[in-house]
Amino acid sequence: MFLQLADVAQAEDWWQFRGPNSGHTVARGLPLEWDNFFREPKWKTQIPGKGWSSPIVVGDRIWLTSAEQVALENVAVGDKLAELPFGAYDLVTDASVKLFAIEIDAKTGERLRRIELFQRQAPQPIHAMNSYASPTPATDGERLYCHFGALGTACIAIASGEVLWKQELVVEEITGPAASPVLWKEHLILACDGADQQYLIALDKLTGQTNWKVERPEITVADETWRRAFSTPLIVESKERVQLISMSAQWLISVNPADGSPWWRAKVGSGYSAVPTPICVDETVYVCTGFPKAEMVAVNIGGSGDVTDSAIAWRHARQVPEVSSPIEVDGDLYFGSSQGVVSCLDAATGKLYWQERVGGNFAASPIFAEGRIYFCNSAGVCTVIQPGHHYVELARNELFGETYASAVVYKNQILLRTNPYLFCLESTP
Question: Which domains does the chain have, with CATH numbers?
Answer without folding.
Answer: 33-50+333-429 (2.40.128.630), 54-179 (2.40.10.480), 181-317 (2.40.128.630)
